[in-house]
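Q: What would this complex look like in 3D?
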Amino acid sequence: MKRAINYVPSRPSAILLALLPFALVLVIYAIGSEVRLADNPSDKLMPSFGTFADAIDRLAFQENRRTGEYVFWTDTAISLQRIFVGLAISTVLCIVVGIPVGFLPYLRSAFGAFISAFSLIPPLAVLPILFIIFGLGETSKIVLIVFGVAPFLARDVALTVAQIPREQIVKAQTLGASTWQMMTLVVFPQVLPRLFDSLRLSLGATWLFLIAAEAIASEGGLGYRIFLVRRYLSMDVILPYVAWITLLAFLMDYGLVLASRASSRWYHIGRGA
Amino acid sequence: MTHIAIRHLTKEYGAATILDNVSVELPDHEFCVVLGPSGAGKTTLLRILLSQEAATRGEVLIDGKPIDSEPQPDRGVVFQRYSVFPHKTVLANVMMGPQLAAAPVTGRMWGQKRRALRERALALLDEVGLAAHLDKYPTQLSGGMQQRLAIAQALIMEPKVLLLDEPFGALDQSTKKAMHRLILDLWQKNKMTIVMVTHDIQEAFTLGTRILMVDKRRRDPQAPEAYGSTITEDIRLDPAKKPPLSVVEGEGDGEDAHSMRAIFAQWRARAGDAVISDEVAEGLKAVV
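A: Here is my prediction, written as structure tokens for the whole assembly.
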């Protein structure tokens, strides 16, 4: 009998093992749904897969009779646009603020503590303020995402900058580098892969802020739809939407991994990734 | 011609005195090795020469002019670790310095100038034995190769002085010897001044034309920080009369294995009768 740690699955069995929990959840759901529907055919809590298909077909592949839109895709487009604009602004902000604050001692003294404090403000607590200032339109939702993600990212960037060994910075100066050149040619490329990692970690928070903002005040979007149909106990819509949001989040996460590998090959060499 | 004058240098951190009134003159093309026990302030001395730290009192002159208050290309440096940029390939690391002065915004040269620089970089990399590893990143190199890269990266700036802060301290013995050979060659060829900090006495006598011992002249057991270090020994060595380096020459990674075999042979010879011959070993096995 070997130690458990020394049993390593082969590649095919590793893939099968990875799929197993997903299959298990589906099977358990199917059984549960079957049992409940046999008991009460109009049960709304655990719809059958056929009901899901009907709901998806109705929302994604048939025009809405009132608006002439394909609701599912319109919701997706609205939410993705909010997320991408919010994340893009956050990324630019965190680089433009985080690198100088992390790198220049005077700026670090002046703004380091401020950014740390700022990033600890719970964004959802200031959501009413954003609605009051920016109204109920797109701006307040994007601002909420930026408010929630950018300070965290900027703080992380500043910390990453501070971790670059002093030797490298001195060496760069002996090669004649200016402050600008050190920030753009030495610091930024080394911050980049870490930034991709932190962006991945903040995807969960980003979706949280988006759905919260959409749930409270919106006229479209994935989060809006979920909270709208909640009133009719439409699990046949809510569950596919949740699965779709999860898939989108997963694809964004994977996209960030690919972008990181493409842009910072040095970082991934020897990390097996 | 490079003449370095260190005059009445004192460095204090609050109440603690690290260096106390250090004065020394280094003529052109000196290979100066600074020795000293841990905490004696030899690295502090190097940092002051580099302008990484400022002296409390006193001054450093190169060719009669006080050194700039910031690190500048006239003084190149190789640290024990982290001297190269991990996000750049070997070739890009060496090509970086000259491009910075030429292109203040982008730090990138183009066309004819870039090709000329590339040729220079290739020649230097060939000299330090990294010609076969141009497109590798530093994490893919061994410790010795990383230090070769750091040296090439510093030399392409043609500094008046090359400052070395325990550059071979983290290397194994055979790599260290190969690096000694390399640095002596480069020192001869480039006619620059080298100031090197180490705690390896053998290394100091192997390399140096000048050996400075930095240590405390007085110790107060009640207040160990009260007295700073100064130069307690100042030896000149004639490189022509030194015994030659006993290491077989080689290239790249191969040399490590090569000199390893040479050193192994020496140790085997020194072990003499203690080495059990093959026949006896067979006999022992049979008994067991």
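A: To summarize the key features: The radius of gyration of chain B is 22 Å. Confidence is low (pLDDT under 50) at residues 247-255 of chain B.
Q: Very helpful, thank you.
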